[in-house]
Amino acid sequence: MSLETVIAEISQDHAELTAIRQDIHAHPEMGLEEVRTAALVAAKLREWGIEVTEGVGVTGVVGVIRGTRPVGASNRKTAIGLRADMDALAIPEQTGVEYASKNPGVMHACGHDGHTTMLLGAAKYLSRNRDFAGTVNLIFQPAEEGRGGAIAMLKDGLFERFPCDAIYGLHNMPGYEAGKFAIRKGAFMAGGGRWQVNFHGTGGHGGATPHKATDVTIAAAQYIMALQTVVSRNISPLETAVISVGSIHGGSNQSSNVMPAEIEITGTMRHFNKETKEIIDRRMRELAHAMAAANGCTAEVDLGWFATPLHNKDEQTDTAIAAATALVGSGNVMPNITPTTGGEDFAYMMEQRPGAFIFLGNGVNPDGSMHQVHTPQYNFNDAIIPTGAAYWVSVVQQELG
Asked: With contact defined as beta carbons under 8 Å apart, do 294 and 219 qualify?
């Protein structure tokens, strides 16, 4: 069936899919807490006659669609996985839309509501059009945003229970024209982590006896400045790495004459290879303890990595490019974009199965403005739902005929 026919058929479901997306948006759930979202996904899959398994990796859902054509010796693949994420973020929503979050302090600020909906759109189409050879595993993953959802599904035997010869992921991208695709071979997204350092001292009276206190604010200030040397002086200029401070907490603005006894600093770090990761890990710890000791304080350091670098395999990237090109034309596919230091835990699945991850433009406003993901004003663009769903169908056509 031609992709023009595919997208026309999916477009007939656009209103239903938009309602699903906005319902998910209105009821966001944090990672490994996607009980309502997972139930909605499972119910829709069953409604469309799709085999469903719930509770994969706590709240993950897998739907299985088997093609009606026989699998022959000439088949390149016999089973593939298509993955979407379901979780939201701890961000108070400021979009002002009528379907805004009903869960205070939590919102779909990254478009996972749209990702889930696009895969559901593809699922509905494929459930009615099974003229392919092999099996499509629809992987609805929980907890992409740093709570270990991919690892949880893998530990629960994802690929042993649902074998896949290749896997594919998709993410919307604000700032790219709606409906355009972007991808590259090799290193595409960074490994990411979060860190927390707590400096402990005696505290003291900042006005009367500062000389009798061990001052954690000095240790913290020196540590923050020293962090800037890790990338500039410990990592090759030819490698990419990021260390950023995200929060600083200490003392009380109601007691400005009190020197705090503890300061907490948190942040994130990014890398593209194992050697860079090891340098970041070692130097961040060494500097924390050194700055603490220099000021008569102590330090507690907690570094945790929530995503490994994502590397697109050549064969699957070619397949993704072919699928996107067949759908929107080569002029709307960017095949060699610059890597991003954003993280994506789909990379853990790609360490076990060859795969490719692609971006789909979420659009820009007429004046060229847009809201980035992970901001209170971000909202997924419902207009791209049919394009994303049809891309998944195109991947199935490329891989399973």
From this structure: yes
DSSP state for residue 152 in the 8-state scheme: H
DSSP structure class, residue 253: T
For 51-88, what is each residue's pLDDT tens digit? Answer: 999 999 999 999 999 999 998 766 678 999 999 999 99
Phi, psi of 155 (to 5 degrees): -65, -25
- Residues 112 and 168 both lie in one domain: yes
- What span, in angstroms and rounded, lies between the C-alpha atoms of 50 and 73? 26
Q: Which residues contact 322 (CB under 8 A, 6 or more apart)?
A: 398
CA distance 208 to 368: 55
Same domain, 217 and 231: yes
Domain final position from 274, 306, 338: 306
Q: Which residues contact 62 (CB under 8 A, 6 or more apart)?
A: 52, 53, 56, 137, 138, 139, 140, 158, 161, 162
CA–CA dist 197, 202 (Å, integer): 17
Phi and psi, residue 299, nearest 5°: -135, 140
Token pair of 2, please? 């031609």
DSSP 107: B
Asked whether residue 204 falls in the same domain as residue 110, the answer is no
Q: CATH number for the domain including 233? A: 3.30.70.360
**Domain stop point among 306, 340, 374:** 306
Residue 231 and residue 292 share a domain: yes
Which domain range does residue 278 map to? 190-306
Same-domain status, 56 and 170: yes
Tell me the CATH number at 145: 3.40.630.10
Helix (H) or strand (E) segment spanning residue 83: strand 79-85
pLDDT in tens, 220-274: 999 999 999 999 999 999 999 999 999 999 999 999 999 999 999 999 999 999 9
How far is Cα of residue 126 from the mean position of the Cα atoms in its chain? 25
E-strand ranges in 253-395 read 258-259, 262-271, 298-307, 310-312, 333-334, 340-343, 355-363
At residue 331, what are phi and psi to the nearest 5 degrees? -65, -15
